[in-house]
Design goal:
Elements lengths: L4 E4 L6 E4 L2 E7 L4 E4 L11 E8 L6 E6 L7 E6 L6 E5 L2 E4 L10 E7 L12 E4 L2 E2 L4 E3 L11 E3 L11 E10 L5 H7 L6 H9 L25 E2 L9 E3 L6 E7 L6 E10 L3 E3 L5 E4 L5 E7 L7 E9 L2
Parallel strand pairs: 16-18
Antiparallel strand pairs: 1-4, 2-3, 3-15, 4-14, 5-10, 5-15, 6-7, 6-14, 7-8, 8-9, 9-13, 10-11, 11-12, 17-23, 18-22, 19-20, 19-23, 21-22
């Protein structure tokens, strides 16, 4: 998720907050958030988009990217102009759900595309409202071929200025993976902690148990361990590094762009027993490239050495 973001046509009164958290108010008159980098899925790549939506107006766009120049080249999630339900459309193709969103109440919406279990067609997109998969009330077949290198718009679409959103949006999310039905239902929980929401969108393979995930070194809400974290890959539980003699070891982990996660290197010689933080073993180096890097003095701990990167997540 990332990129150079711009708030367009908002005023100071358009940022609001209620018992559900902070939100942006869209008045249907050009307000949108534009992310000027290609961070959305392209072609027929898998994806999930989700948001909390409050509206009484049909037709508005929740999130979009791609373009309208070729069949299938757009990716647009919006409120259907006819029945007010959730709609995903590509150029010359669409699917429409069944539950009206125009209630004036908060609804969680999600669209999931997984080409491994469905053809690369928009008719294979799964729609969810408040965690419940929707029956499809209408559709138009078209192969998904989302244009690459286009900005993401939240609250509008560059090619359709008449479709600016009217209402409130919060927690708009997009990710390059297809969430399971169980993960979407969990994401739709109104009481979901921030840490859990962050985790679900990045690593849906394992559901954390927030009552049990702790570490012996006192880092609570420990999520996962790895020595080379990539957002689109499952992470190993632990890596044993056989190191003999003197030398150094470089650890790298992708930074959280929301700054919601603290990364803590931990070491152990018996991972079934104890893990510890040893600040003196690790030298933090610059992370301007989007990664945290640590240099470890491996001569300070006799082999074998087990290393993990713990996640401590802000609530």
């Amino acid at each position: 998720m990332g990129g150079d973001a711009q708030l367009v046509a908002f005023t100071g009164t358009d940022l609001g907050s209620d018992g559900t958290g902070a939100y942006l108010n869209f008045r249907g008159t050009g307000q949108h958030l534009r992310i000027n980098a290609q961070v959305g899925a392209a072609g027929s790549e898998e994806r999930t988009v989700a948001a909390w939506v409050r509206t009484q107006t049909v037709g508005g766009v929740i999130i979009s990217w791609g373009n309208r120049t070729e069949p299938g080249s757009a990716w647009v999630m919006r409120v259907d102009p006819a029945n007010g339900a959730l709609r995903v459309e590509v150029q010359n193709g669409f699917v429409v759900g069944s539950t009206p969103l125009t209630t004036g109440q908060w609804n969680h919406v999600a669209a999931v595309f997984d080409p491994s279990i469905a053809s690369a067609n928009v008719t294979g997109v799964r729609l969810y409202v408040n965690g419940v998969q929707q029956s499809i009330t209408s559709s138009g077949s078209r192969t998904i071929n989302t244009a690459a290198n286009t900005p993401i718009w939240i609250g509008g679409e560059s090619a359709r200025p008449e479709l600016f959103f009217t209402g409130q949006l919060r927690d708009v999310q997009w990710m390059p993976r297809a969430l399971s039905a169980a993960a979407v239902a969990e994401l739709a929980r109104a009481d979901l902690p921030r840490a859990h929401r962050w985790y679900l969108t990045r690593f849906p393979q394992v559901q954390p148990d927030w009552q049990r995930l702790t570490s012996g070194s006192g880092n609570t809400l420990l999520l996962h361990y790895a020595t080379g974290i990539e957002e689109d890959q499952p992470m190993p539980n632990v890596v044993q590094l056989e190191q003999t003699g003197t030398g150094t070891l470089r650890l790298s982990a992708r930074r959280d762009p929301l700054a919601a996660v603290n990364l803590i290197p931990e070491v152990s010689q018996d991972p079934a027993a104890n893990w510890s933080v040893h600040p003196s073993l690790f030298q933090t180096v610059a992370h301007a490239d989007g990664y945290h890097h640590w240099i470890m003095d491996t001569s300070a701990v006799p082999p074998p050495v087990f290393i993990r990167i713990a996640y401590s997540v802000a609530q």
